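Below is our example:
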Amino acid sequence: MDLLQHLIRIFAENGYIAVFIALMICGAGLPLPEDITLVAGGVIAGLGYANVHAMFALAMFGVLLGDSAIFMLGHHYGARIMQWRFVARVLTPSRYAKVQEKFHRYGNRMLFFARFLPGMRTTIYLSAGMTHRVSFLRFLLIDTLAALISVPFWVYLGFFGADNHEWLVTWMHRGQASLWILVGILLTILLVSWWRHHRRARCEQD
């Protein structure tokens, strides 16, 4: 967790602007894990260097801005963007073909679940923009719904574990699995709510 300690030190010294810049780097697909960046932002809030709710709001804005920039790059430049040296390293032809196959099979659900697939987000968001299958507003809505699950999870995890790094590291290792469980619970609740509403509507018609 040397990276976490390094980020905590930088964020504590430079505040919100450093967190925002780091999230832009994450969104660009560079090798800086978004989850560790969000946790570090939460930790400095827990240590008193920032307000945790303001940190959450900043993190949401930074995450969505970075994702939107990647999507719009793909949307504006299309397949030409694959000729860029940096993009070519992230989005190889085989990876692009694989993502397209997933889009064909799962549709816009891929955009939602991409938020919980570290290392795949940039590829999926670029591909989504390149295909022109989804409007920017739809992309932003889907991405926002997913970010409302992942971003507070990591930020508040860092906040509550700021004074107990052993506990924090343990839950960071469990974090991705815990996120999938949380997503499953929320989807189950939504499905049950939809089923009850549908059943009630049918009973009223009868």
Remarks:
- The mean pLDDT is 82.
- The chain is about 80% helix and 0% strand.
